[in-house]
Amino acid sequence: MLQVQNIEKYYGGKNNVTQALDRVSFDVEAGEFLTIMGASGSGKTTLLNCISTIDTISAGKLLLDGVNIADLSEEELAKFRRERLGFVFQDFNLLDTLTIEENIGLALSLNHQDPGTVQSRVRDIAQKLGITDILPKFPYQVSGGQKQRTAVARAMVAGQSLLLADEPTGALDSKASKNLLEIMTTMNRDMGATILMVTHDAYSASYAKRVLFLKDGRVFNELLRGDRGRSVFYHEILDVLATLGGDVSDVI
Amino acid sequence: MSVTLSKLSLRNAQRQARDYLVYFVTIVMAAALLYSFNGLVFSSEVHTLSSGMNQLPMVIVLSSIAVVCIFGWLVSYATGFMLSRRSRELGIYILIGLTNKQVARLFFLENLAVGGGALALGLVLGGLLYQALRAILFAMFGLTYHFSLTLSLRAVGLTLCYFALIYLHALRKSRKRIRKMKIYDLIYFDRQNEGAVIRAGKLRRWMFAASIILGMAGTVFLMAGDLIIGIIGAGCLIAALFGFFLSFASGVPAFFEKCPAQKYQGQTLLIFRSLTAKLSTMGVLMAVISMILTATLLVEGSGLVFNGIFRGRSAESACFDLYIGVGDGRNPAVYVDYINDNIPVERALEYNVYESGSTQIMDYLEGQYYYYSYDQDPALCYSDYTALRALAGYQTVELEPEGYLIHCMPYLERLLNDYDQPLRLGDRTLSPSGMYTEHLSQSYGTANGRGYILVIPDEVAEGLPVHHWAYAARTAQPVPEEQFYDLWEINDRTGSGLASNTIVTRASEEAEVAVQTSLFVFPMFYLALALTMTAATILTIQQLSETERYRRQFVLLRKLGMARQEMERALGRQFTIYYAMPAIPPVLVGVPFIFHLAQLPEPGIMVGMRSPLAIVMIALGLFFLIYAIYILLAYTSLKRNVISA
Q1: pTM confidence score
Q2: Contact between B561 and A83 using a beta-carbon 8 Å cutoff
Q3: Phi, psi of A5, deg, nearest 5
């Protein structure tokens, strides 16, 4: 579904160039749940920004369903984002002047969907995510976990094919985090949603089917969960992180 | 500590001037306006323009007091608003160990610095503005203007007093507020705002529906054209205004709850939610702003109507340098003797205005206009008419041997153009041979007819009874004010003192227009300008204070795939509705009012650029011009910071 081929990303001017990504390559299959891990400054958020077309790459190719993202105009990129990509951010990024229902419906409205069907589609997805009760409320009236489930609903409601999550559990307590990750797993398993999540939390990463480790802008390692249980996979992730060095405190 | 505090105040003042540039510019303009008008109060040169100008200082001081109240409210509101916006920062000052008293002093000093800076800049700008006012006054009095930049210390002193009043009132209020505040209230002030968003209720929804109905009824009443019903209509609109703005944040969501499909149409969701969020916290303020804008439009319109009346009346009478009409049968020689002895005349004409013996035109016009003082159609003989035209500088016109002409004021032109009846005077029948409408002093009882006059062959006029004696002259110099008063004194001394006699000089008419304009129109525009600037500034600082929230919103929308063009469109629409909402009621109230007011003066003077329709259009143009400047400033700033960032 997504092919990342030798992408590089440089920041800065003439005398001060920083390489954020260094020949990163990997593929994401349809229906996969992939996590990218790495320490602060390893380039994981840059990578996510490039995939989400918010940032541009300096070299290499990014293909989504065979379409090279670099070939698209600004208009086409906007269309691409609203039709194909769904976003979940660490700080929820809901609009505080809109109700929960309207925040979810906004994604459909931006996609110029039939206004008559918006409400019923919003209710369908809200039911799946267990947030029907809070639909008429405003974001500041609900909990962090509910906000994040709202963000997931917004990211999926318009039938987006790839869900990009940037530290989705970063602002949640452990119970809300577990709940959200289980919901994401269900969506991946039962609804076939393709998920690409960026995190530095090993517990969150253990819900994925595959984990890529970034260090200094390069792919350092890759772990496949296979048939192993989640807790075994979790410990394997911790082992890899220990070899990465310096970030054990981040993951415990 | 005090050094640090004053440095901090100065830095904050600079930041405040930058962040609230529109407000700062308005305060500079306020200082400039106050100073320039104060300049007129203390200018001895202005007082010598005419004896009528003696009242100008009093009128301007009274207007300035009103303007000080208006700007005082603006500064008080803006200071309070900035205090709320910066509550977290002020809370942090207290958190790190400053006392409430010190924070209050800090806030006081920084506002004083902003006010002082604005005043200094305003005085410089006001100096130039004063010159502009001087130039306008000189032009109105027909004098040559010479630029001379002077600083009036007394005007500076008065402006300083006004500014001290404005600022001390506002700062005293905020000092009280800061002293009472607790750290928690300051740091979490924004949460109090959020709570207000959810205020909804059945009552408010009913209020919303009722205000819409009341607003529609009010508009219909206003359009009915009747004064009493119009006043009731205006009352309905004001009630609707408050009801609408107070209930908008509850009423519109209630409407969309019933029709969800409408809500998700295009950019409706984003636009209406941004507006309801804003109006839920500033409903009363929006209604007050709408009232201020209504007052602005009414004051501007009234100013233009007054201006039209003064100019309209003068234009007709000021076509000769000197005109005298004596209708009480006394000997006119006393006037002529005085003129010959005192006023250098280039060319003069003594003539009679006759009673034609016919009432044909009068009968034709009857019922259409009420403004006549003749029993019969007045008439001039052709040779006098030709001489009068030459005196006024108009081209000579021909009269056929058995014809008659009509000379009328422009308002009768359309009506009399259709008149094609022959005129029967004794045994002669004259056929219509033309109509002319140049100004010919036709608005008094003892002028060249009232509204219209017939021009007939000399031999036909011979033997007709004289209605009054008349004298018109072109003088070498404009007739001075003293000589004009001398002529009136002769009139009062020698005759019955009847007001039916007419003595008009071009110079006195022009001076009177200039005096009346200075006394009535200048203060009205002064007030209107202060009102518009205040309303537009408050709307703009409210809008620009949301910049950061809009910026975050549009960054998110961009990530969600909203195209830049669509974002610009959404922002533009949101902006248009936000600024249009308080401006619609003023238009609904103002237009019928001004139209009605402009129709009240006697016929014949509100024509051309002074016609009711033209005055309404000019008033609307002026009103939206100043408003548009603020909208443009706010929009470019918001677009630059929100979308282009």
Answers
A1: 0.79
A2: yes
A3: -120, 105
- Three-state secondary-structure class, residue B89: helix
The CATH number given to whatever domain includes residue A220 is: 3.40.50.300
Output A97 or A123, whichever has higher pLDDT.
A123
Among B198, B257, B262, B559, which would you mutate to test the A interface (most chain A Cβ atoms within 10 Å of its Cβ)?
B559
The residue ranges of every structural domain in chain B are 1-197, 322-477
Residue among B405, B409, B415 at smallest CA distance from B382:
B405
Contacts of A97 in chain B (CB under 8 A): 197, 273-274, 276-277
Pairing state between β A210-215 and A218-224: antiparallel
The interaxial angle of helices B584-599 and B612-642, nearest 10 deg, is 160
Nearest chain B residue to A110 by CA distance is: B562
Domain that holds residue A26: 2-251
Over residues A133-190, the pLDDT tens digits come to: 999 999 989 998 999 999 999 998 888 888 999 999 988 898 999 999 999 998 888 8
Q: How far is A54 from chain B (nearest CA, A)?
A: 7
Number of domains in chain A: 1
The listed range with the strongest mean pLDDT (A188-202, B184-198, B360-374) is: A188-202
Instruction: Dump pLDDT digits (tens) for B492-507.
Output: 887 655 557 888 999 8
Q: Measured between beta carbons, which residues in chain B are less than 8 angstroms from residue A155?
A: none
Q: Which residues of A touch B (CB under 8 A)?
A: 52, 54, 74-75, 78-83, 85, 87, 93, 95-98, 102, 105-111, 113, 115-116, 118-119, 138, 140-141, 154
pLDDT tens digits, B22-80 = 888 999 999 999 999 999 999 888 888 888 888 899 999 999 999 999 999 999 999 98
Residues in A closer than 8 angstroms to B561, CB to CB, are 78-83, 85, 110-111
What pLDDT score was predicted for residue A249?
44
What's the distance, CA A40 to chain centroid? Answer: 17
Which residues of B touch chain A, with CB atoms under 8 Å apart? 194, 197-198, 260-266, 269-270, 273-274, 276-277, 549, 553, 556-565
- Which among B266, B560, B565 is the nearest to A107, CB-wise? B560
- Asked whether the beta carbons of residue A97 and residue B274 sit closer than 8 angstroms, the reply is yes
This complex has an ipTM of: 0.81
Using 50, 70 and 90 to split pLDDT, how confident is the model at B371? Answer: low
**Nearest-CB residue to B264 (from A75, A85, A118):** A118
